[in-house]
Amino acid sequence: MKAKGLISLSLALSVTLFPSIAGADSHAHSHSHQEAIDSQGNQVEISDVLPKAEIERKQTFDVPALVEEASNADILNENGVKIGEKVIEKTKGNLLDQLLGQNDSKETQKNREAGLCLFGCSGGGDDGSGSGGGDDTSGDRTATVLIAADEEYRAARSDWQTFTQNIVENADNAFVRDHGIDLEVQAFAQWSSEGNNASEILQDLDQDWNGQGYDFVVGFTKDANFNAGGIAYVYQSSPYGSAVSVNLDQGAENTWRAAQHEFSHNYGLGHDAQGSGIECIMNYDYSYEVDYWDQEHDDEIQAHKAWYGN
Q1: Where does the signal peptide begin and end (predicted)?
Q2: How many other C-beta atoms can be found within 10 angstroms of the C-beta atom of residue 297?
Q3: Picking from 6-20, 85-99, 100-114, 288-302, which range would have the lowest pLDDT averaged per residue?
Q4: pLDDT tens across 196-232, in order?
Q5: Is the torsion defined by CA of 220, 226, 229, 231 positive or negative?
Q6: How far apart, in whole angstroms, are the C-alpha atoms of residue 46 and residue 262?
Q7: pLDDT score of 92
């Protein structure tokens, strides 16, 4: 693996502040952010940090997450050496039926939240914006994921591999449902996080684990210096190497919602303005409340779908 240490300012981090612009449209950032060069030479934007959730939601998973396709995931130590393997089984049988029943379409979820399901809302299916529907749980595009958990996270969770796999698989439900994108976990890595804040810890993960051949590298941390719910690189085009993000341990539900938000940044998505009333996971007002995107962001994911996977 690469030597420890943050990307030097002279080589990789040029900070540019973008002040909010009065009268900007509802999809414009209202915060400042950084531009940087990642470890693979991509020009990236470091997203504004996702705030930590104000409400504590489910801390554990009641049932295993829906797994679209089976995989054999490598377990790697901090030096990148394979030390084991985890078999991830495809969801089948009664559990599949149960999980499909819980995976509401976007329109069904909106109706449920608005109190319009007076006579019952059917679960599962697709709202027409993606390729899902029926009992077909697989997407038409599969992107590979390396999960990296830092030393604090691993110390707190002896089941860190299963727990983080469930987070990623829950985060990808909407990607499968609305866009036919399956995020497939193919490796688990031990990571020693360093940094004074969320941005530096993101760059540390980039240095340590980018360039290993996976579409996404997603970190999970309990580092006391990580001052956010999540953070990610925002790309303007298909990156060379992996797309990188980090999420704070906020239990089961809040963390998978944060992970979906950060994966969305990897597809180039920005934020909706707070107070705009736009119900979208990219609006901080709704990031821990909904699992769908507004139409403009749906269109953006579709346009960038080919950036990752096959």
Answers
A1: 1-24
A2: 23
A3: 6-20
A4: 999 999 999 999 999 999 999 999 999 999 999 999 9
A5: negative
A6: 11
A7: 84
Cα 276 to Cα 253: distance, rounded to the nearest angstrom = 25
Strand-pairing partners, residue 207, are: none
Residue 13: CA atoms inside 13 Å, Cβ hemisphere, count? 16
Tokens at 134, concatenated: 């029926």
- The model's pTM: 0.83
Q: Report the percentage of the chain scoring pLDDT > 90.
A: 73
Check: CB of residue 84 under 8 Å from CB of residue 188. Answer: no
At 284, the amino acid letter reads: Y
Token pair 């409340």 is found at 289
Look up residue 186 and give its two tokens.
């193919």
Q: Is the pLDDT of residue 243 over 50?
A: yes
Partners of residue 14 on adjacent β-strands: 35
Q: Are strands 82-88 and 141-150 parallel, antiparallel or unpaired?
A: unpaired
